[in-house]
Amino acid sequence: MAAATGPSFWLGNETLKVPLALFALNRQRLCERLRKNTAVQAGSAVVLQGGEETQRYCTDTGVLFRQESFFHWAFGVTEPGCYGVINVDTRTSTLFVPRLPPSHATWMGKIHSKEHFKEKYAVDDVQYTDEIASVLTSRSPSVLLTLRGVNTDSGSICREASFEGISKFNVNNTILHPEIVECRVFKTDMELEVLRYTNKISSEAHREVMKAVKVGMKEYEMESLFEHYCYSRGGMRHSSYTCICGSGENSAVLHYGHAGAPNDKTIQDGDMCVFDMGGEYYCFASDITCSFPANGKFTPDQKAIYEAVLRSCRAVMSAMKPGVWWPDMHRLADRIHLEELTRIGLLTGSVDAMVQVHLGAVFMPHGLGHLLGLDVHDVGGYPEVSALAEGRTGASRTWGRQGDFCKCPSCHLPRWPRPCERWGRAESQSHGPAEAQHMGVVWSCPVCSSRPTPPGHAHGLSASVHTRARAGVLLTAPVPLPGKPRGKPGPRLLEPRMVLTVEPGIYFIDHLLDEALADPTRSCFFNREVLQRFRGFGGVRIEEDVVVTDTGMELLTCVPRTVEEVEACMAGQDKAFAPFSGPK
Question: Where does the record place a coiled coil (predicted)?
C-alpha cells in the first residue's frame, strides 16, 4: 500500500498502516450508488449505528469489543457506542461519539475531545450521540436511510439504527441494505491491500504451526501458537472465527473446535490434521485451511486423498475468471473428487452416473467457497430475498438448516431441503407472513423438478461451506409470488474485485457413508473393502483465499501445498516453494 498521506490505523512495529481514506472512499462509493437509485430522494441521509459493548452474562466483566461490520466499512471506528451520518448529496460525514462521564478517565483512560475523533477518523464533523436528534433536525434531511436486512448466512436481521427522537423523521429502511451490501462485495485497492496483509500473516502462522506440530501434542497447542503468531507479529487481536484444529477422526468434523469439542484431543501418530484458522486485522478477515500428516510423512492413502483435493483446488482456481458460474466450479471439484476416488479403487462405475445421484456430496457435504471481507462469511453471496419477491434469482442458506431436510416425495432423493421455520419468522418481519409462507412452499426436488441446490452444493457465494445443514438453496427458475412476473434464472457470477475462498475437501464421515450405503442408487458405486480402509481416516480440506481479476484470479494465500512442500516444511526445511499461479 502506498504511504498514507492522512490519518492511518497502525499498531506499530511491522504491522500494516491502513489509511482512513479507505473509509472515505467507501462512503463516496455508497453515495454514488444511492444517487443512481431513483428511489432515493434528494436530501437523504444515511444513518448507521455502531456496535455496543457487552458484558459476560449478568456480570460486569466486559467482552472484548469488535466493531459491527457495516459501520466499520463506512467509518473504520474502533470505539463502541457510536453513530455515523452521511449526507448522500454532499457526501459529508458526521461521527457521533458517546459523551463520557468524568469517571471514565479514572477507569478507562483519557476522555478525548470531538476534535480528536475528527482528526483520528478523517470525518467532516463530530458530535455527541445525545445530540443526534437535534443535529439532524437542524439539517432537515428529507429521509433517513437506515440499515435493515437479513444476513443470508445467519438468517438474522442486522441492527437498524435507532435513537430517541427518530420517530419524528421520515425513515426508509429498505433502500440502504442491498446498496451497501453490493458495495462491500467489490473491494477497492486499499481493501485488497489489507486482505493481502491478513493472508500474509495468517499464512506465516500456518507455516509456523506446521513446523511445530508433533505427535503427542494437544490440538489446542497449535491453536495457541497460531493466535500468538498472528497477534505478536501481525497485531491481530481477533481471529476471524474459532480455530478448527482437528486431528484424526476430528479432521472430518467440519466445525470442530466449538465448546463441546474444544481442540482438546492428543495428536496421534498416523493422524491427518485439518487446521482451519485465520487472523483478523482491523476487522478484515482471512480464512485458510492446511491439511497434513501429524508425523510429517504422508502414507500412500493420505497422499492419494490429499492430492485429489489439491488437484480439484487448482483446477477450480485455473478455471476462475469473470463470468464463471460458481455452481460450475463446485461441480468441477465434485467430478475431480469422484474421478480420483475411482482411480484409487474406492469407487467403481461411471463418474457421470455418480454425478447424477450427487455422490460427491457424501465426500464433500459443503459448498466450495464463500465471499471474504470484513466478515469471514462476507455479505453479498446471495441476492437479497426481496429480489426473489420481484421474480429475480436468489438463494438463501437459511432455507437449509440442521434438521430441515426430508426426502423428495417423487424420486425419494435424500437430504432434500425444505423450508425452515426460522427463515419464515425472520423474513415475515420484513416481507410479510404471506410472502414468507408462499416462498416456503415452492421449493422442488433437485433431480425431478426445477432444481434447488443439490446436496452439498452452494449455489451462491456464501457461507454454505462447512456444514451440510448450511448448504445454500438456489432457484434456477425463480418462482414468482402472487402478482409477480417470473424472471430469468441468473445466479451470482464471478466478477472482478470479489474476494472469496476456494476450499474443496474430501471427508470420511461415518453417518454420511452409512446413509449412502443404505441407498441402492448410491451404494452400487462403493468398493466396500477399500472403503473400510478409510473408516476413521478423517478428512482433507485445502482452503485458499483469492481475488477475482479482470482475466483470472490472484492467490492471496502463501503456504506449502504440494506433498513435497508440506513434508519439507514440517521437517523444518525453509526452502522456497512456488505458490500456485493461475491465469491473472
Answer: none
